[in-house]
Write a structure and sequence with these properties.
Blueprint lengths: L2 H30 L4 H30 L3 H4 L2 H4 L10 E7 L4 H11 L9 E7 L4 H14 L2 E4 L6 H12 L4 E4 L4 E3 L4 H5 L8 E10 L4 H22 L11 E4 H6 L9 H11 L3 E12 L5 H25 L7 H32 L10 H4 L2 H11 L1 H18 L2 H13 L1 H13 L15 H10 L2 H19 L3 H23 L2
Parallel strand pairs: 1-2, 1-4, 2-3, 6-8
Antiparallel strand pairs: 4-7, 5-8, 6-7
Helix pairs in contact: 1-2, 1-16, 2-9, 2-13, 9-17, 12-13, 12-18, 13-18, 13-21, 16-17, 17-21, 19-21, 20-21
């Protein structure tokens, strides 16, 4: 790490803290200038949201800053436990659920190339597919290739249920997990990582999860993962709160049995991390890539993923709050778990609430929300407009944009990440509500004939009704505001309208 790299992290951290403090200060300014109850209530709500946003922005900035020290202070893979005492038995498990048979077979074939003594390793295909044609193809492949095929007639416990079913039928000392759409790229996966388990307190080793690159959309999805694994995971690893991410990982079977197996939740990986920590086991994160997920080219796949992450994250947040008295850890570790559970709610529900407040401010008594074109360009109004319209989203836009250019050499992908967060805001919010109410709907998205333009249009429209409706209302408000010489407020709402309308565009374009 160079000195300039450290200086950059300090600079961005200070920038985020300063902008967060400024946004809270502006909220206080709103309160001071309120001359009626409407303005006071709106200003207080704006202050509350600004405080929440500031807390999470600063936590994210700290992760970014602290991750600088990962290589120098966290040296599991680099300096110790380099050799295996003996070759333990390992189960390579690939859980699948109605994934294309060709893709699953390709994943398994690549996994079989792993470097390890063949008499100490077994391969398992955990098939929960309800599609009979897929199940038949996978069963035939397994019988012809020496892979153990385990099929369930129900999805009880989801992915965790399939893995627990394996626990009951297998005797291997360790389980290495790869998702059905992930393929091994480094054959030394077991040889390099198993020596870490010479420390008997270590329950799992998680490696970096990434997607292969293909187009602007799939590259942006990969970048979202990269931000988490490059900065958040490395920072948390130094506090022993690294998150098990469900695949590209190895888990010790004895530790699993002591906590009762894989927690059978939608987001089993986060629950497993917490339960291991609560039972005095350690989790290790190695910032190295050993496998790649196939490019995520379809927006519906991304939407399903984000729904699952936020549904599970919300479930975990409630679980943590109920059991926090039993969890003994320092303040930073507790913040890690709270922020992980609330993270996607923050960048979805808070975005939506900020947008609604923008409407209330635009049509309220705030003078700077009623600037004409000439006033907007004058010094008296331009400062206030930028304070109001930009500072609330500055951190979640400018900072990631800069980081995307610095670390991934792509402004375009950074902008796409920014838009994607708005495109799935309602999907994540819906997941949070469903988790709160304990609802587990089977069919979240409508299907359609994607072979025709009309079919694709209807498919996109049916799957983005809430977003299109919200975007249309915002557009109507923006037109009304501009028609009444409220130019600054109108442009502000038009920008939000376009951002939420991107859901329809993505469903149509990346179908």
């Amino acid at each position: 790490m160079s000195g300039s790299s450290y200086a950059l992290r300090v600079t961005i951290f200070v920038f985020v803290v300063a902008v967060s403090a400024l946004s809270v200060g502006i909220s206080v300014y709103f309160i001071s200038m309120s001359y009626n109850l409407y303005m006071l209530v709106v200003s207080l709500l704006f202050l509350i949201l600004s405080l929440i946003a500031s807390i999470f922005n600063i936590i994210a900035a700290f992760w970014y800053y602290n991750s600088y020290f990962y290589k120098s202070k966290y040296t599991y893979a680099a300096s110790r436990n380099k050799r295996l005492d003996y070759y333990p038995t390992v189960a390579i498990a690939v859980p699948t659920y109605n994934e294309p048979a060709s893709e699953v077979i390709s994943t398994m074939e690549k996994a079989k190339r792993i470097k390890y003594p063949r008499n100490r390793i077994n391969f398992y295909l955990l098939d929960d597919s309800t599609n009979e044609e897929i199940a038949s193809k996978l069963s035939k492949y397994a019988s012809e290739s020496g892979v153990n095929y385990i099929h369930r007639d129900n999805r009880k416990g989801f992915k965790a249920g399939a893995l627990n079913n394996l626990l009951r039928q297998s005797s291997e000392e360790f389980i290495a997990i790869f998702d059905a759409d992930e393929y091994l790229t480094n054959r030394n996966f077991l040889i390099e990582l198993l020596p870490i388990f010479n420390d008997k307190d270590i329950a799992y080793v998680q490696t970096e999860k990434r997607y292969a690159k293909n187009n602007l959309f799939s590259n942006a999805v990969d970048m979202m993962f990269a931000f988490f694994f490059k900065f958040a995971q490395t920072s948390r690893a130094m506090r022993d709160t690294a998150n098990f991410a469900g695949s590209c990982a190895i888990v010790r079977k004895d530790a699993l049995l002591k906590i009762g197996g894989f927690p059978e939740h939608v987001l089993e990986d986060t629950f497993l991390s917490f339960e291991m920590k609560n039972n005095n086991f350690k989790g290790v994160y190695i910032h190295k890539n050993y496998a790649l997920g196939r490019p995520m080219n379809k927006f519906i796949a991304f939407a399903r993923q984000q729904w699952r992450y936020n549904y599970g994250g919300t479930e975990f947040l409630y679980h943590y709050l109920k059991t926090k008295k039993e969890y003994k850890a320092n303040t930073m570790s507790k913040l890690d778990y709270i922020s992980h559970g609330f993270g996607l709610n923050y960048i979805s529900i808070i975005l939506i609430l900020f947008t609604i407040l923008s409407v209330l401010i635009t049509f309220g008594g705030f003078p700077f929300a009623h600037a004409s074109v000439s006033q907007l360009l004058s010094a008296n109004y331009i400062n206030e407009f930028f304070e109001l319209g930009l500072l609330t989203t500055l951190v979640i836009f400018i900072a990631p944009l800069l980081l995307s250019k610095i670390y991934f050499n792509s402004f375009k992908s950074g902008i796409m990440v920014y838009i994607l967060n708005f495109s799935v805001a309602f999907i994540r919010a819906k997941a949070a509500v469903q988790a709160t109410l304990g609802l587990k709907p089977k069919n979240l998205w409508a299907k359609g004939n994607l072979g025709t333009r009309r079919g694709a249009f209807l498919f996109a429209l049916k799957n983005s009704v809430a977003e299109v409706s919200f975007s249309t209302v915002l557009f109507a408000f923006s037109v009304f505001a501009i028609a009444n010489s409220n130019f600054s407020g109108g442009i502000w709402l038009l920008w939000y309208s376009l951002l939420y309308g991107s859901t329809f565009v993505f469903f149509y374009k990346y179908r």
